[in-house]
Automatic annotation (TrEMBL):
It comes from Misgurnus anguillicaudatus (Oriental weatherloach). It holds the Pfam family Peptidase_S41_N. One of its GO terms (molecular function) is serine-type peptidase activity. Residues 53-191 form the Tail specific protease domain. SUPFAM superfamilies: ClpP/crotonase. Keywords: Receptor. This is Interphotoreceptor retinoid-binding protein 2. The gene is IRBP2.
Length: 191
């Protein structure tokens, strides 16, 4: 890329973005990457979590999470949406009862993100921390938001609601071309 000085002469921003898209896709081999020119871009602000009773929130979570214990005491946990910190705090005890208490005593886990298409950035430390030790804290990721010029540092959490699954049991992570965004980050961090 540094030797390709022809792109420096492209004056139209949309054309430059198109040329850069092709170059980046070919360089890193990820067909989902796209460079765009958006001079009027305003970052989307996620709406606040509405004041919904915890039971209704739990029902919504149950619709996006499948949990079962398979033969040979292997937990299977399919997650389609990674909830954020705010919602996790509201429904934490229900999550423990519905999901975590079932999978905690298993001897291995399959974490299925093959259909995970949405999630909240603040949920990454919650999930990753259940598969790490309490100490020392681990730097999970740094996420840079260009429009606001803010880098968010994500660290493992020293305390959690419920017990940790730990680091000694086998953990298999399933991903696919449909694994997007936050779930991709969680899978990478757990790797």
């Amino acid at each position: 890329a540094s030797s390709n000085t022809e792109i420096l002469s492209i004056s139209d921003p949309a054309t430059l973005a198109s040329v850069l898209t092709v170059g980046v896709k070919n360089t890193i081999g990820d067909s989902r990457v796209k460079v765009t020119y958006e001079p009027e871009y305003v970052p989307a602000v996620p709406p606040p979590v509405p004041d919904i009773p915890p039971e209704h929130l739990a029902a919504m979570i149950k619709a996006t999470v499948k949990v079962e214990v398979l033969d040979d005491n292997i937990a299977y946990l399919k997650i389609q949406h990674i909830i954020g910190e705010e919602m996790a705090q509201k429904v934490g005890p229900l999550l423990l009862e519905y999901i975590w208490d079932k999978v905690l005593p298993t001897s291995a886990m399959i974490l299925d993100f093959r259909s995970a298409i949405s999630g909240e950035l603040s949920g990454i430390p919650y999930i990753v921390s259940y598969y790490t030790d309490a100490e020392p804290l681990i730097h999970i990721d740094s996420v840079y938001d260009r429009p606001s010029d803010i880098t968010t540092e994500l660290w493992s959490m020293p305390t959690l609601l419920g017990k940790r699954y730990g680091t000694s049991k086998p953990l298999l992570i399933l991903t696919s071309k449909n694994t997007l965004g936050v779930a991709e980050d969680v899978a990478y961090c757990l790797k």
